[in-house]
UniProtKB/TrEMBL annotation:
Domain N-acetyltransferase: 13-216
Segments forming domain CN hydrolase: 228-485
Protein name: Carbon-nitrogen hydrolase
Species this protein is from: Haloferula sargassicola
Pfam families reported in the protein's UniProt record: Acetyltransf_1, CN_hydrolase
InterPro entries noted in UniProt: Acyl_CoA_acyltransferase (IPR016181), C-N_Hydrolase (IPR003010), C-N_Hydrolase_sf (IPR036526), GNAT_dom (IPR000182), UPF0012_CS (IPR001110)
Residues making up the signal peptide according to the UniProt record: none
Protein family per UniProt: Belongs to the carbon-nitrogen hydrolase superfamily. NIT1/NIT2 family.
Length: 528
């Protein structure tokens, strides 16, 4: 596991996964190593390297000597199907350099790039990076490493040799090629020569297809640990006597989900905590929501304790949180098994939230990497806007949780229908939980209509109608079901339709104003 120090004849080299603040140094190094690719518009850009960290941080490596980055290796996991040695292009296999097609269920580690500072060559940096990549392949039990290798000196011989003849002579030692020769010395076998692989004048756009087979690979019919158990709490609003009464009701559901049903994720509905206003004296809606925000420390302590006691991920519905500038945001807190949490604010605010409560929209989207799945949260109205879900899906989420609060069937249908659409178009699971019951003395929370459900892509791997499980409407209950993450990747790879890979990126470009900052290991946040 990284970070790790490697001993070479010229000294010690530290290899670790890069951080966001390493990106400028990585770009500068890439441009020094490949000035001809800069001219051909093929050098790395910041948004591409950020995407690599988002989708597969573990596969990105930097080599450090004396505190300076002197080498970089970039990788992703792909599924090559029944013909793993088929010809491809660099931009196709790397999803135009962004690695959006990274497939955690794949069997092949694809080496997208390795480059070493020219001033540090001869110190064994390349060998260290290749060894670290082989160790990653073995640790993840992947079948092979595959890569396209530049024919770095082919331009000097193209007038008399075909690319295949050039590769044969490099293999025979008759021509020196610093890239292909090094790859062969590292145990890679040349399987083919691919035309139009990458924009590289020195290679005449050709590349060798090289393969290293993992001798420790253990084949299995199904990868273990691909199922995730989720519990959706269809929570009934009713008068409480105080915070302790509220806490007891919440505790009951979390303990039941964890202890009795073995749930790994529990999701409560939007505005779960508004129930606390029922034990206070009647007040106006804006005064009430401000009063509710004062319960934030107690709310956080309760939810963090429950997540820690049960060792699960707890999406604690939503709660109004006062911001440093005095604004209120409708915020979902995602608690981890250690009791820590991150916040996902609601971005799109309904007219009634603005009118009754003065809620403001947030400006960030969070992705949480867990041992079983990569997840995100959109609160109620947010799921009715495809851009937010697409942003999260492009950053690799497999499960989207949607806590909601709707007062009638029309509102419920807007949320549930759009949740089903997000599942189909992004080939992800969408897990929803809504409130039921009523709070007669709390303004804007009088009546509710809810029906918890789990939506899937609509394909052969999944339940009929794209609904894996659904609760009865308007009764307090808990919906528990298992999600098979591997089914998502089978569907994306060979489904009746494959919307994730069939997007027309040549016609439609998705843009956002999110800065996509990494805020801690396992958590990414995009901020407007």
């Amino acid at each position: 596991m990284l970070p790790k120090e490697y001993d070479t004849e010229k000294g010690t080299v530290l290899v670790r996964n890069p951080r966001v603040d390493d990106i400028p140094s990585m770009i500068a190094l890439h441009r020094r190593c490949f000035p001809h690719m800069v001219a051909a518009d093929g050098a790395w850009e910041e948004n591409e390297l950020r995407s690599h960290l988002n989708v597969f941080e573990e596969g990105q490596l930097v080599a450090i000597v004396d505190g300076k980055i002197v080498g970089v290796a970039s990788s992703l996991i792909v599924s090559m199907g029944r013909n793993p040695l088929r010809a491809h292009t660099y931009y196709g296999i790397t999803d135009d350099g962004y690695f959006y097609n990274h497939d955690p269920q794949g069997d092949t580690l694809y080496g997208a790039e390795v480059y070493v500072d020219p001033e540090a060559q001869g110190r064994g940096i390349g060998k260290v990076l290749y060894e670290a990549r082989r160790e990653l392949c073995r640790r993840l039990n992947l079948r092979r490493i595959l890569a396209g290798g530049r024919l770095s000196n082919y331009a000097d011989h193209a007038d008399r040799l075909t690319p295949e003849e050039y590769v044969w002579q490099v293999q025979d030692g008759k021509i020196k090629d610093p890239v292909l020769g090094f790859q062969i010395s590292q145990g890679f076998a040349v399987r083919d020569v691919m035309p139009n692989y990458i924009r590289d004048p020195r290679s005449k756009d050709y590349a060798s297809l090289i393969e290293w087979l993992n001798p420790e690979y253990q084949a299995s019919s199904e990868k273990e640990g691909t199922k995730v158990r989720v519990a959706c709490v269809q929570y009934s609003m009713r008068k409480v006597d105080g915070f302790d009464d509220f806490a007891n009701q919440v505790r009951y559901f979390v303990e039941t989900a964890g202890e009795d049903y073995g749930a790994e994720f529990v999701v409560f509905p939007e505005f779960l905590s508004v129930q606390l206003l029922s034990h206070l004296k009647p007040m106006g809606s804006r005064e009430g929501i401000r009063k509710l925000a004062e319960f934030t420390p107690q709310f956080v302590e309760l939810m963090g304790t429950l997540a820690r006691e049960q060792g699960l991920y707890l999406i604690a519905g939503s709660h109004p949180v006062e911001q440093p500038d005095g604004r209120l945001e409708n915020t979902a807190m995602i608690f981890k098994p250690d009791g820590t949490y991150v916040c996902q604010p609601k971005l799109h605010i309904t007219p009634s939230e603005k009118t009754w409560w003065g809620i403001s929209g947030g400006d960030s989207l969070v992705v949480v990497q867990t041992p079983k799945a990569r997840v995100g949260v959109l609160i109620c109205y947010d799921v009715e806007f495809p851009e937010a879900a697409r942003y999260l899906a492009d950053r690799g989420i497999e499960v989207l949780f949607v806590p909601y609060c709707t007062d009638n069937r029309q509102g419920y249908l807007r949320v549930s229908t759009c949740a089903a659409a997000r599942a189909i178009e992004n080939q992800i699971y969408v897990v929803t939980a809504g409130v039921v019951g009523n709070l007669p003395d709390v303004p804007a929370m009088d009546i509710h209509y809810g029906r918890a459900a789990v939506f899937t892509p609509s394909d052969f791997e999944f339940a009929r109608d794209g609904i894996q499980s659904q609760a009865d409407a308007n009764v307090e209950t808990m919906l528990v079901t298992d999600l098979d993450i591997s089914d998502l990747y089978r569907s994306r790879q060979s489904g009746a339709v494959t919307p994730v890979s069939d997007r027309r990126r040549d016609l439609f470009e998705f843009q956002n104003k999110l800065s996509n900052e990494m805020i801690q290991a396992g958590i990414e946040e995009g901020r407007l």
